[in-house]
Amino acid sequence: MKKSPNPRDLTNGDADDIEERLRLRAPIVYHIIKREGEEELARPTSSLWWSGIAAGLCISMSVVAEGLLHQHLPDAPWRPLVENLGYTVGFLIVVLGRLQLFTENTITAVLPLMTDRSRHNLYLLIRLWTVVFIANMVGTFVFAAAAHYGGIFSPEQVESFREISRHFMMKDASEMALHGIPAGFLIAAMVWMIPSAGHAKFWVVVGMTYLIALGDLSHIVAGSTEAFLLLLNGEIGLWTTIGTFMIPTYFGNVLGGTVLFALLAYVQVKEEL
Questions:
Q1: Going from the N-terminus, what domains does the chain have, and what CATH number goes with each?
Q2: What burial letters (b/e) apply to 103-136, b meaning 16+ CB within 10 Å?
Q3: Which residues of the chain are modeled with pLDDT < 50?
Q4: φ and ψ at 118, to 5 degrees?
Q5: What's the rounded Cα separation, in Å, for the pair 5 and 236?
Q6: d(C-alpha 56, C-alpha 50), whole Å
Q7: Most exposed residue of 20, 36, 138, 152, measured as fewest CB within 10 angstroms of its CB?
Q8: What is the pTM (predicted TM-score) of this model?
Q9: What does the pLDDT read at residue 166?
């Protein structure tokens, strides 16, 4: 006699559904990001350069969106809660567009070196960091110059960009460095979360970068657009741009993204690799 099917038995479709809903284990996430890092390290210098410039231009849309919201919203206590959403726009373009952003590479390109500590990997990492960082700075400077001299935006809009930039550049060097650490950590956390995010990548990017804006944290690439806008307008000098903003924020972002998050990501899975 034929056995009647047990309602508790799983069909092939049920098994597939379970497989799809299983969270990626940490070692799998590590290998995914490491593989992406290896691909980035292997890219030609010219590809890294132009992708980095594009990322610098696109990340400046964060300042544009935030500035436009600042311009049109009433001066109310809740205004920062809304205008800081504009900060996420540039990151969405860069991350979903797979452009080269320096702070993403503080974890992505570091994991291959942690697994294989060779001179070749160290050279590739230094090459990528150098090329992408300089290209990002060129991109943000070109955007700031176009906004300042090009007449792309109205004088009222440019003044709104400068207004939010002034607030950011009021920090001293120690504040820039300290505020750069959690910013670097959050960007690295965003990169770590994306492989498991599926269709929610949009919200992962928005959530992490919104926290950076709301917390008034320091991001070396997005913040450089603000610094260059004030530099070109004669409100700050070159030393303030480099010494007070760039150097402290750079090391803060690297400390948060590489020394803290990437190292923690590695030590939690090294026995399983």
A1: 25-272 (1.20.1080.10)
A2: bbbbbbbbbbbbbeeeeebeebbeebbebbbebb
A3: 1-2, 7, 18, 21
A4: -105, 160
A5: 76
A6: 10
A7: 20
A8: 0.87
A9: 93
